[in-house]
Amino acid sequence: MEVINFAETPSLVSRYMLELRDIDIQKDRLRFRTNLDRIGEIMAYEISKRLDYREVPVQTPLGTSICREPSDRVVVATILRAGLPFHHGFLNYFDRAENAFVSAYRRYREKGDSFDVLVEYLASPSIEGKTLLLVDPMLATGSSMELAYKALLTKGMPAKIHVASVIASRLGVNYVMEHFPADRTTLWCGDIDEEVNSHSYIVPGLGDAGDLAYGEKD
């Protein structure tokens, strides 16, 4: 499986990542959501280079031009709620894509920091033979990503899979590499952090992406 870490190559992603991580800047929810959206757009553009294309004749006012358009049927899928602004960035570029949404959340057990990840909602078209873009800002343990993927598999088997996260942990990267089909999956990360704490949050990470984007939960 190919793993692409944007932090290894200088780009504007680095600036947007700085703002997402900065404890003072991230108090501005609009800016936080916008930066997730921007990184989604940049990743979408890079992923577009991996698609298959077909030639299409286009009539101009002065003649005919042979242009190219993607032949892949793309489905952009995200995990609610933190994934929504990130998803929106992908949709800005893949504006003709179909969309899927999965509700996956942590239910903590009575004692300790252990938890189960539950999936309670799925809205998705068929993904059979299509190119699946599974996007979520934070890839911590990888268990939510895997459960979302398994839920989506009830709608068919995709031909290609692109998993995209803004920040991933090394643990999450290794988990995806072990549990997703290596021959047709590419993992895209804005940056990779080495540590996950006892609450399964990425360190240094940026905190709770959902709360920073939309406000704290009661």
Characterize the main sheet: 8 strands, mixed
Question: Overall 3D geometry?
Answer: globular
Structural class assignment: alpha/beta
The helix count comes to: 6
Q: Regarding quaternary structure, how should these chains be classified?
A: single chain
> Secondary-structure element sequence?
EHHEEEHEEEEHEHEEEH
Q: First CA to last CA: what distance?
A: 39 Å
Strand content: 35-45%
Average of the residue pLDDT scores: 94
Our Rg estimate from Cα atoms comes to: 18 Å
Helix proportion of residues, in percent? Answer: 25-40%
Low-confidence stretches: none
What's the total number of strands? Answer: 12
Helix-strand layout with pairing:
Blueprint: E1 2-5, H1 12-21, H2 29-48, E2 53-60, E3 63-70, E4 74-80, H3 83-93, E5 98-108, E6 115-123, E7 131-135, E8 138-139, H4 143-152, E9 160-169, H5 170-179, E10 185-193, E11 195-196, E12 202-203, H6 209-214
Parallel strand pairs: 1-10, 4-5, 4-7, 7-9, 8-9, 9-10
Antiparallel strand pairs: 2-3, 5-6, 11-12
Helix pairs in contact: 1-2, 2-3
